[in-house]
């Protein structure tokens, strides 16, 4: 028997706790299930203990990813118990977020083929362009590219009304926001296009602001010439894939972009900062979004009289995202998030950069810890 706990053995007891599981390095290594993953999730489902999967991964629609995870883990999952890196972006298209970008022209970066464009359109964004569209329309914008990688996924650009500002002489899109949905596949092309837009006049591709690095500018991050806002879905510098050493993630791309941006503009020494809107673990925005989805899922599982969710055990392999996020999260509904670090992913031993409540071997031990705490 797993554990002699009242909760696990008495179906009438509605647990006031739940689990949040990171995926890469906790349940999977790339697409290979880790040994205890199926056993652990099955046990929790048998005993009606709620959990969600909270990942900085992405690049597929929530439904596609959940279908794939259900098959890989041999557990029945659905989107009500799943949050991935760009899931909160949907609020920027449905009017529930801080801004409404639904009909704005957004450059969606990252992911394979044009999957992320289709995800963005599935969220409700109506005016999505991709680097493939741009490089196919303007091959000279980046000389070092394999055009045949982009052609099949390109759509014709809808030129903006080219104002009287100088431009490249072509009708070009006016980009209002840049959104990195998933790890970029062509860092060089994507960095070039993002830099072009961050230095542009008002997001008009092919223009160049003359306000660069003006130290008289109010220091509000950008070059103050109407450039587009930048959104990232995942800050992970490293993550646990199938290779035995951690791999660069979207945070690595951000570091490369910032390096080029600072080299061109003079960076902070020149009173110019790369301003970004960050999502993904460990940000508060993503943990609050996840807690809300977990609460809805728990109510669906346990009924509306399930009582208050008092504690959540965040099980992760990355101290910089999973552990830091849970440690720093202050729930607006008062639940306590305890961080549990596993040794099956990025973390390999030693003093972690962010101290978890406990360090255990794997996801099975993590659930034993949580159930033990709940008695
Ligand atoms: O892109 C995946 C990587 O950033 C880590 O994902 O599941 O460990 O949060 P995860
Ligand atoms: Mg992980």
Automatic annotation (TrEMBL):
InterPro entries, per database record: CDP-alcohol_PTase-I, HAD-like_sf, HAD-SF_hydro_IIA, HAD-SF_hydro_IIA_CECR5, HAD_sf
Pfam families (alphabetical):
Hydrolase_6, Hydrolase_like
Alphabetical GO CC annotations of the entry are: mitochondrion
Q: Which GO terms describe its biological process?
A: glycerophospholipid biosynthetic process
SUPFAM superfamilies in the record: HAD-like
Among PANTHER family, the record links this protein to: CDP-DIACYLGLYCEROL--GLYCEROL-3-PHOSPHATE 3-PHOSPHATIDYLTRANSFERASE-RELATED, SUPERFAMILY HYDROLASE, PUTATIVE (AFU_ORTHOLOGUE AFUA_2G02580)-RELATED
Protein name per UniProt: Uncharacterized protein
Organism, scientific name: Imshaugia aleurites
